[in-house]
Automatic annotation (TrEMBL):
It holds the Pfam family HD. Residues 24-123 form the HD domain. SMART domains: HDc. This is HD domain-containing protein. SUPFAM superfamilies: HD-domain/PDEase-like. The lineage of its organism: Bacteria, Bacillati, Bacillota, Bacilli, Bacillales.
Length: 211
């Protein structure tokens, strides 16, 4: 293993294990596998950049950032990454977030791979589990039949409203299939998307039966 990747891995494991189950180190491992699967058909990708970006992509997430917590740049510096590599990794990470639909433009193969890899872990069976894990950690309602999903919002609006977990499917997760960038990401997303649709159909039937 690349020494810089090895050092970053050692540093991030403890950090991510302090996050809730929706963004823990297991999430990183799944995204890494997704990224490697996508990259197999994209041989021009710099896998050092891809792997470092995956390892560090949630370190600066505003949902988990606390005063005094270490940044992705600081972790790269501590691992011995040169400025050029660190810049590429941070640019790749910047392109990953959904931000309420206000996403950054993809500027590299690596950015496309990591974005799609992360989004694959947000949908399908694991995406459903992660949504309710995050909602439970934040005290969110399972569902709110009166809540209207937003179709347009700023990043601040997206992050600040404590919507019900089911609403999150309509504001983000069901949109991701059509926002995939790579051909492999699009292919892998379809089955996961269809599973979410089936889950929501069943859930809505059960919710309706309870009214």
């Amino acid at each position: 293993m690349n020494k810089i990747i090895e050092r970053c891995t050692e540093q991030v494991i403890e950090i991510y294990e302090r996050f809730d189950a929706s963004h823990d180190y297991d999430h990183i491992l799944r995204v890494m596998k997704n990224a490697e699967d996508i990259a197999r058909v994209m041989p021009d990708a710099d896998m050092t950049v891809v792997r470092l970006a995956v390892l560090l992509h949630d370190i600066d997430d505003p949902k988990y950032k606390e005063a005094g917590s270490v940044s992705a740049l600081e972790l790269l510096d501590a691992a011995g990454a040169e400025d050029g590599l660190a810049t590429k990794v941070l640019e790749t990470i910047k392109s990953v977030s959904f931000n309420g639909g206000n996403e950054e433009e993809i500027v590299s193969i690596e950015g496309a791979i990591v974005r799609d890899a992360d989004r694959l872990d947000a949908i399908g069976a694991i995406g459903i589990a992660r949504t309710f894990a995050f909602g439970g950690a934040r005290g969110r309602k399972l569902y709110d039949a009166d809540e209207i999903a937003r179709t347009q919002m700023s990043e601040d609006e997206y992050r600040s409203k404590n919507t019900a977990s089911v609403t999150h499917f309509y504001e983000k997760l069901l949109l991701l299939k059509d926002l995939m960038v790579t051909e492999e990401g699009k292919r892998l997303a379809k089955e996961r998307h269809d599973f979410m649709v089936s889950f929501l159909d069943q859930l809505n039937a059960e919710i309706g039966a309870a009214k």
